[in-house]
Amino acid sequence: MRSIFTLAALLAATVPLAPAAAQSIHGYTSGPTRLYSGPLRDYPSVRTLRRGSMVNLQGCLRDWSWCDVTYRGDRGWIAGDALRISHDGRRRGIASGMGIGVTTFLFGSYWDNHYQGRRFYGERQRWQSQYDSGYRPEWGEREQRRDEGSNRGRMHDRRQSEGQHGQDQRSDNRQGQDQQRRDHASIPRSAAEPYRLPQHGERAAQPSPRNPGPGNGAANAYGRNDRMGHRPDQGTAHDDAAGHPHN
User: Fold this and answer.
1) Does residue 224 form part of some domain?
2) DSSP string, 104-134
3) Of 60, 140, 71, 54, nearest to 100 (Cα)?
4) 45 CB-near residues (< 8 Å, 6+ apart)
5) Contacts of 145 (CB under 8 A, 6+ apart)
6) What is the pLDDT of residues 74-131, one digit of tens each?
């Protein structure tokens, strides 16, 4: 009989014990307070709690200003200074070192998970804007909205498209300027620069054979006649011998 008891004791010692269930942290309201739908008193109220109401703490913000709690199936936020927990046999104000976890506040997921059946959920967009404009660092990492991500993607694509369009336009402008320079270089100088009458006191430029200038044809003819010894308005010796009168 003694050997049987000894064997049973050895078996009991070798069987691992089941782990103990995690102990939830309970808090108590220090006075009448409200359960809010966010860590500010501006957010809609979920319900009112009386003094001494026991709540289950889900976690508190890192500065212990607000705590996420449940009360009779309702989820919400209570100001940290309105809560007490039992610690070392006494009810004390919440603080670090009491086993309370640190949590964050992400508006979109929090409201979608807990308040879709509430009447104030119909103003979700308004309170989303409140979260965006009144965001506080102690709430943790800021939540990125789905529409913000898509807007950033569209803005990035737009900047890339505008940059490519600007590069193409600058390339077209350079090509047009190069073509203008080539066209201008192929035009003869005499055609590109029209004849300009000399100003008072300015020496007239010598006409070129290609561009004699207005009136220079008659002047050249006059010069040839003058070198031959007669003027255009005088008859030739042949005319005098033939008896033709001078005009």
Assistant:
1) no
2) ---HHHHHHHH-TTSGGGGGHHHHHHHHHHT
3) 60
4) 34, 35, 36, 37
5) 108, 128, 132
6) 999 999 999 999 888 889 999 888 999 999 999 999 999 999 999 999 999 999 999 9
Residue 212 lies inside a defined structural domain of this protein = no
User: Residues 3-42, buried b or exposed e (16+ Cβ, 10 A)?
Assistant: eeeeeeeeeeeeeeeeeeeeeebebbbeeebbbbbbbbee
pLDDT at 202: 59
Spatial separation of the C-alpha atoms in residues 223 and 74, rounded to whole Å? 118
Q: Encoding tokens for residue 72?
A: 């009779």
Task: Name which of 105, 94, 19, 88 is nearest 55 in CA terms.
Answer: 94
DSSP class of residue 82 equals: G
CATH number at residue 35: 2.30.30.40
Write down the pLDDT at residue 173.
73
Distance between CA atoms of 7 and 240, rounded to whole angstroms?
Answer: 169
State the DSSP string of 13-32.
Answer: HHSPPPPPPPPPPEEEESSS
Kindly report the backbone phi and psi dihedral angles of residue 68, in degrees, each rounded to the nearest multiple of 5, phi listed first. -90, 120
To the nearest whole number, what is the mean pLDDT of the chain?
A: 74
Task: Tell whether 178 is covered by a domain.
Answer: no
Is residue 69 within 8 Å of 61, Cβ to Cβ? no
- With respect to residue 61, please indicate whether it lies within any of the assigned structural domains: yes
How many structural domains comprise the chain? Answer: 1
Q: Say what the pTM is.
A: 0.53
Beta-strand runs (E) in the chain: 26-29, 33-36, 45-49, 54-60, 66-71, 74-79, 83-87, 90-93
Domain that holds residue 35: 26-139
